[in-house]
Inverse folding.
């Protein structure tokens, strides 16, 4: 207890005398609960690609991650409350990632480490890469970089602690594990020719039925407000468009008769066309 700074827990409108601040703390239940949890988070030892090397370096003695109470990396999801998704998430790997997340006890958090885990990174257009783990799991902190440095990971962990400090036991709508009743697990993706999110099965079924019936499918419909804006823009553009120039009549044969040189060119052109038609007729 001598190493605990009770001044971090002071959360009251009633001031505590300076000489008692090291021994007495007046605070709320949410504040002391969040304080104890933020300083004892156990990350899940789960590396995917090059970002995992930076995560391992952060756990070394050079950076002293133990200052934040997060140095105990667990190999079992049932003993961890922070999943650090470090590296490229492939479509084959997202299935066990979601399964491991469901096995973690609540409260639990997700930190997307690096550009690949946050949005696909340089492999975003790849056929085998998921464009961000947030499409399947609720991400609390995003850390850019390719790969981010150990200092960046520590900053992300501090940001997560600040997020935890803002949570309240009374806000049951914002935080699912503080609500009434058990929370539903995240649906595990189905790996087939491509990754299928079970939450989209009804939409996939409707599109498959439309495709089987020969109807267009997969087309996104604009909301009515957007359609009105487009129509209005078309009307404004049509009103601002300048009037078309009057069509110029084709030159008549009489105009050619007035110009001897033009008449001679037309005569030679007609003779050349006649010779070409005759040659085509002989070849046929």
């Amino acid at each position: 207890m001598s190493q605990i700074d009770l001044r971090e827990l002071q959360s009251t409108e009633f001031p505590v005398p300076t000489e008692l601040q090291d021994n007495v703390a007046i605070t709320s239940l949410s504040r002391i609960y969040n304080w104890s949890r933020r300083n004892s988070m156990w990350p899940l030892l789960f590396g995917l690609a090059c970002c995992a090397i930076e995560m391992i370096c952060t756990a070394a003695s050079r950076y002293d991650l133990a200052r934040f109470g997060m140095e105990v990396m667990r190999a079992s999801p049932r003993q961890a409350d922070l999943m650090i998704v470090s590296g490229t998430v492939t479509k084959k790997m997202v299935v066990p990632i979601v399964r491991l997340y469901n096995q973690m006890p609540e409260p639990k958090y997700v930190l997307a480490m690096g550009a690949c885990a946050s949005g696909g990174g340089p492999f975003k257009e790849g056929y085998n890469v998921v464009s961000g783990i947030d499409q399947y799991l609720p991400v609390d902190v995003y850390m850019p970089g390719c790969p981010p440095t150990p200092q960046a990971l520590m900053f992300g962990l501090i940001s997560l602690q600040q997020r935890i400090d803002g949570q309240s036991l009374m806000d049951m709508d914002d935080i699912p594990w503080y609500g009434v009743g058990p929370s539903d697990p995240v649906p595990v993706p189905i790996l087939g020719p491509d990754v299928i999110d079970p939450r989209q099965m009804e939409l996939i079924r409707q599109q498959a039925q439309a495709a089987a019936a020969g109807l267009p499918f997969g087309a996104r419909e604009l909301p009515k407000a957007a359609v009105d804006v487009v129509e209005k823009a078309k009307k404004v553009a049509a009103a601002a468009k300048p009037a078309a120039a009057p069509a110029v009549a084709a030159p008549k044969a009489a105009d050619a008769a007035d110009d001897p040189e033009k008449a001679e060119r037309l005569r030679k052109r007609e003779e050349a066309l006649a010779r070409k038609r005759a040659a085509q007729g002989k070849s046929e």
Observations:
- The mean pLDDT is 80.
- The chain has nine helices and six strands.
